[in-house]
Amino acid sequence: MGLKKSFSSIINQYFSGIDRPLFATVVALCLFSLFDLYGIGGVNNPYFSKQVIFVVLGVIMMVVFSFFNYRYLKNNSLAVFVLYVISVALLLVPFLFPSIRGVRSWIAIGGLTFEPAEFVKLVLIILMAKYFSQRHIHINDYRHIIVSGLYCMIPIGITLVQPDFGSAIVMFFIWVGMLMAIGLNRRQFFVLAVLLLIIGTAGWAFVLKPYQKVRIVSFLNPGSDPYGSGYNLIQSKIAIGAGHWFGSGWGKGPQTSNGFLPEPYNDFIFASTADQFGLVGIGAVLAAITFLISRIMHIASRATSNFGRLFAIGLTIIITAHAVIGSGVDLGLLPVTGIPFPFISYGGSSLWSLLIGLSILQSVRRYG
Q1: Phi and psi for 112 in degrees, rounded to 5?
Q2: In the chain, how many domains are there?
Q3: 114: which DSSP letter?
Q4: Residue 15 resides in a domain
Q5: Which value, in Å, is the radius of gyration of the alpha carbons in the chain?
Q6: Does 11 reside within a domain?
Q7: Domain range spanning residue 34?
Q8: Model confidence at 352, in pLDDT bands (50, 70, 90)?
Q9: What letter would DSSP give residue 100?
Q10: Comparing 241 with 323, which gets the higher pLDDT?
């Protein structure tokens, strides 16, 4: 009886200090991901069984870590810097492992893989929140823009070499988005835009290889190479169109169940969801993501520290970028980049990073 009462007390303590609508939305999205993955491959599908473990452990981590006082990160510069160094070091480890589909982005141990770039994204928003919360009144000093940019460009550069363009783009958005949140003036924004345009042009001309350029621009005319660079996008569009309003039914998506849609569990999970549940299904997922973001910003508006507000903004940037890019790629509006759709795609790296990020956010909600 005492153990039961103690457990009940912990549960009450947890829910009394967090944003409950946010918690419910996250759990609903995670459960839908299991439902979705089961429909794609059935109960014997290894992706489904692994995702069950990822979801259960991830939700437990989200609950446990929310009791960790975020002020330790806010007030301890050395701890944040060590965390950053560890994350960058982990980003280099995949170069010691064989490439997967031509990319060295994963640490593979046994049957499990870990993608350090997802952890780096979380660490970057912690680092940027820490850096800018201490210097927001001096943001007009170009030195702080340059220093913060160097912190971000190191992992971005490593990620581009892997090459993982999708994650590099998200890291870049974290830096620029948090700079804009802290308050760049027009002159700084113009100088930054021109500099980035020069870097982007030089990268296209001298860094990217021909096959990488083809992959980036193939979304403009996938029909020019329907069995090569344009195949994935064509099948994705067919799957989304086949879903119509209400989809073909759970486990009955023609493109997905017949194996025409590539990577239906992760890169093209948005298309496979549309294949099964139609426009209504993907609309509900996007509505849930939008509501989740609104709750994150609600916590940001109530945070008593600049660190808490900036961390919430950074987390919003990650989730929004993944959702926009993930859906945009599948719809043929953006180049194929290969990043997971938040909370829905198969994989533990992205899911756990997001859930740990949300646990820190709930700590901001709990401790102010």
Answers
A1: -110, 145
A2: 1
A3: E
A4: no
A5: 21
A6: no
A7: 21-367
A8: very high
A9: B
A10: 323
